[in-house]
Amino acid sequence: DAGVTQSPTHLIKTRGQHVTLRCSPISGHKSVSWYQQVLGQGPQFIFQYYEKEERGRGNFPDRFSARQFPNYSSELNVNALLLGDSALYLCASSLGAGGTGELFFGEGSRLTVL
Amino acid sequence: RKEVEQDPGPFNVPEGATVAFNCTYSNSASQSFFWYRQDCRKEPKLLMSVYSSGNEDGRFTAQLNRASQYISLLIRDSKLSDSATYLCVGMEYGNKLVFGAGTILRVKS
């Protein structure tokens, strides 16, 4: 069975550009969360979506936005990129909106901002 | 102060050793706790849940002390394949996970 898939796996952008990252959850999972992992740190929560509605938002600026589609896939958008946005962006899926603590992560999209 | 704090290590141990990691959390709203494992340049994966009564899974034992806001992970009989970063994680509302920065373990032959 396919796990969580993310695309692209690697990308390089310059300051001021925008980026769209994509995620397909495990089949049957209705919740998708996004995390940012800077080198040497643990993942930091950005968004959670469940049944196409935003269920949680972390402490990130409005340049970060996301949405979930009817097929439960999701996009993360980041506008006006800054050097500090360089990180591994992880998508995680879970069956429901919460409670179990078990998230299934994709391999991530590694973003480099020059 | 970070919500979840861990000793970054690295912990360098020989095969067969017993090693213990600790973590402290500051947000009393955290409902549940977990240990995740992350291999180099890979995604995090759930290792085990942490309960006040303790939780044992083979060579791994996790413990939660709510009064001290302290979480531990004990690994017995370390294997080379245990080498990884161990992330202490608190769960807030829904499935919002708050990760520590991780503790690096290197098991050497």
Overview in brief:
With 114 residues, chain A is mainly beta.
Q: Can you put this structure into words, describing what you see?
A:
Chain A has 114 residues and is mainly beta. Chain A has no helices and eleven strands. In chain A, the strands form two sheets. In chain A, strands 2, 4, 5, 6, 9, 10 and 11 form a seven-stranded mixed β-sheet that branches. A four-stranded antiparallel β-sheet of chain A has the order 1-3-8-7, with no helix packed on it. In chain A, strand 7 and strand 8 form a beta hairpin. Chain A is globular. In chain B, the strands form two sheets. In chain B, strands 2, 4, 5, 9, 10 and 11 form a six-stranded mixed β-sheet that branches. Chain B has a five-stranded antiparallel β-sheet with strand order 1-3-8-7-6, with no helix packed on it. Chain B has no helices and eleven strands. Chain B has 109 residues and is mainly β. In chain B, a hairpin with a 5-residue loop joins strand 4 and strand 5. The interface between A and B is medium-sized, with 27 and 22 residues.
Low-confidence stretches of chain A: none
Oligomer: heterodimer
Largest sheet of chain B: 6 strands, mixed
Average pLDDT across residues of chain B?
A: 92
How does the helix and strand content of chain A classify structurally? Answer: mainly beta
Overall, the morphology of chain A is globular
Output the structural class of chain B: mainly beta
Number of strands of chain A: 11
In terms of DSSP E residues, the strand content of chain A is over 45%
